[in-house]
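Standup notes, structure subgroup. Blocker cleared on the aspartic acid input:
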Amino acid sequence: MNSRRKFLQKLGLGSVALITAPTILAQEAKNDQRAINKYKPPVVISTWSHGIQANEEAMNILSKGETALDAVEKGVRVVEADPNNHSVGVGGYPDASGHVTLDASIMDHLGNAGSVCYLQDILHPISVARKVMEESPHVLLAGQGALDFALQKGFKRVKLLTPEMEKTWKEWAKTSIYKPIVNFESHDTIGLLALDEQGRLAGSCTTSGMPFKLPGRVGDSPIIGAGLFVDGEVGAATATGMGELMMKTLGSFLIVELMRNGKSAQEACEIAVKRIWDRYSDDQNSEFFQVGYLALGKNGDIGAYAILPGFQYALAVNGENKLIDSDYLIKK
Ligand code: ASP
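Run returned:
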């Protein structure tokens, strides 16, 4: 039995044909005729249900005439500061050794980028990433160096591991089995993209990463081109899900390149998801492979696509801010 069929059986879909290459080609052909989802700026789009609160803040910023860059930073700070959110900032799940380690990145419409990874004890990694972009000659700072830089810039040390998460970690440590969870608590990483009224694009991405990851593990979120990419002349993309898959395919970069070559934001997201699936669906753990991409074109064109059902995104446009179920690849 081939491994794709085995995968279907694992999902309880043994008798159903998996989306095969010819089907994907047919979908791509169909997509060419599909209407583009295009909106007049300002537009803000972000991952998961916590995107609603982040979008609200980002729209607030944009309505005061501030830039898309300010909007993407301030929007995700709301989620970073929420101790009840267990996948971003304070209150995030720790790694296998009980430490909360944060990854974040930010990009503006001019192609400037900044990011931090394996950062501990700082409440707002996204703001440190912005400082790296604006006040250092570098793009990515890691671990102790990122922490030293943040302290030098006036950020204060805080305890990121909440009592609730410490208890959860101690419970997990009894077995210590690393098992990625699909659509983890329905609110993983926050990736947020904004287009302001002046036509400037920006993006941000921030996370505490995969729960109980190996100490030292860095995901896609701070890797420019994997978890986030912005080209002010074309579009922006961001990702959530199993970071290793986006890192091996540079999905956010790929999406923007596809848009540069004429694909709509939606088509680009679909092709990037299929790229992952075509390469890695034979993996014995592929039943846990979830990735969700969002894209926003300079023309206000939006796209969203995931491998599996369950990925949601928040879209703020035309005075509305709503949570939407993303389309996905693996259908029954
Ligand atoms: N992409 C994040 C990471 O791999 C986690 C997530 O979005 O669930 O670190």
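Discussed briefly. Confidence is low (pLDDT under 50) at residues 1-30.
Next: hand off to the docking folks.
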